[in-house]
Design a protein that fits this description.
elongated, single chain
């Protein structure tokens, strides 16, 4: 039943998300992913909608409105973050050493994690949209992927921290 519904609604969702994404400043794939998630939650709670096509169109528009609200709240920094230049040479040397250990551990991460973590640690302060574009993945996948990569990084760094 679920598979048939997903198969039947797939092309319509792709078309609706593609049509609405630009106006919302969102990626079509992110809209699709959010609507699929809504559908799965609905199927689990209430069963399939009576009018699947109408439900899907309303869900896409609802996600577009949510995306617009979210993007209105996101603001870039007006200035560079404040530099805490009052640190002494020993603190600066220790911070540099911690940075080197972190970057070495990031390079040892599996899969796409090194590129993702480098983008997140970039001094350019990239947005999720820019990082997703740079890595060629959907913006909605960044959070779960970041969590997975941070878990791997914690496991890599734990023995080094414990040894010191």
């Amino acid at each position: 039943m679920t598979h048939d519904l997903v198969t039947a609604l797939g092309p319509l969702l792709t078309a609706e998300a593609s049509a609405e994404a630009d106006a919302a400043g969102a990626e079509p794939g992110d809209l699709e992913q959010a609507v699929w998630l809504r559908l799965l939650e609905r199927l689990d709670a209430d069963g399939p909608p009576a009018d699947p096509e109408g439900w899907l169109r309303r869900a896409v528009r609802s996600e577009v409105r949510r995306s617009r609200r979210t993007s209105r709240l996101e603001r870039p920094y007006a200035l560079e973050p404040v530099d805490d230049g009052g640190r002494d040479p020993e603190e600066l040397a220790l911070a540099a050493a911690r940075g080197r250990v972190l970057r070495e551990a990031v390079r040892r991460l599996p899969g796409r994690c090194p590129r993702l973590m480098e983008a997140l640690l970039s001094p350019k302060d990239l947005t999720y949209r820019e990082i997703a574009g740079e890595l060629g993945i959907s913006q909605g996948s960044l959070g779960p992927e970041r969590s997975r990569c941070l878990g791997c990084l914690r496991r890599l760094l734990t023995p080094e921290v414990a040894a010191r």
